[in-house]
Write a structure and sequence with these properties.
Layout: E1 11-14, E2 22-30, E3 33-40, E4 45-50, E5 56-62, E6 65-69, E7 72-76, E8 81-84, E9 89-93, E10 100-107
């Protein structure tokens, strides 16, 4: 199955998970989970949240930022991959001066 993110309309989500600013998303979703291409503008965040029924893999495409996971900050640069298992929480933060672009895979478990 091919997912063409360029053919999926972009959605702008203000204050995602009580975060700062906005997130730009192109999302494929079915009953098994979500696959998203996203962009955080400088200073934007996805607020701290727990994955109760899913896990999440975030792969950084471009830009710099960090993730808050288990009380510690992990730096993110292109090629970095963050994993948040089911039952754990995290927050994605763009603390750089350019857009932070990422691919997120969220399988339901």
């Amino acid at each position: 199955m091919l997912i063409d993110f360029n053919a999926i309309p972009e959605t702008v989500v203000p204050h995602m998970r009580d975060g700062e600013k906005e997130v730009h998303l192109r999302k494929y979703q079915d009953e098994l989970g979500k696959i998203m291409r996203g962009k955080l503008i400088p200073g934007a965040t996805i607020g701290l949240h727990v994955h109760e029924t899913s896990s999440e893999v975030i792969y950084i495409l471009s830009g710099k930022g960090k993730v808050l996971y288990e009380g510690a900050y992990e730096p993110l640069t292109p090629g970095a991959c963050h994993y948040c298992p089911k039952g754990k929480g995290h927050s994605l933060i763009n603390d750089g001066d350019e857009d932070l672009e990422f691919l997120a895979i969220i399988p339901e478990q």
